[in-house]
User: Which sequence fits this backbone?
């Protein structure tokens, strides 16, 4: 690990966090007792990382520096797994089992599906 790698992850993470904040502000207005913004940020982040890693592994068009900036940094800042876990904990603590199970299943299924779609999109081009 070198200083340039740290800077790339730092910049990408900051941009991803800013994107996450923007998504949160936009979707929070429509959210009624369900964390749609977190779900959306995680799903989009999974789609992007699927495409990036597919590009990195399949065609070699993504450099190690781009991978650090975009996949590790940007997607790491954009996705919100720690928030996801805390929100699920809150559902459990509040006795909202339907929200807990629905959110968990939707998040896992949607995000896994989006990674697969991202990989497919890169393979089909």
Assistant:
């Amino acid at each position: 690990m070198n200083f340039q790698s740290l800077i790339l992850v730092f910049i990408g993470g900051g941009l991803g966090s800013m994107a996450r904040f923007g998504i949160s502000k936009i979707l929070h207005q429509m959210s009624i007792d369900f964390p749609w913004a977190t779900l959306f940020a995680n799903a989009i982040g999974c789609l992007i990382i699927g495409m990036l890693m597919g590009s990195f592994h399949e065609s070699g068009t993504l450099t190690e520096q781009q991978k650090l900036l975009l996949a590790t940094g940007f997607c790491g800042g954009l996705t919100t797994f720690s928030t996801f876990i805390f929100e699920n904990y809150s559902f459990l603590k509040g006795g909202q089992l339907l929200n807990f199970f629905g959110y968990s299943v939707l998040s896992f299924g949607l995000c896994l599906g989006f990674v697969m779609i991202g990989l497919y999109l890169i393979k089909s081009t």
Q: What stands out?
A: The chain has one domain: 3-123. DSSP finds five helices and no strands in the chain.
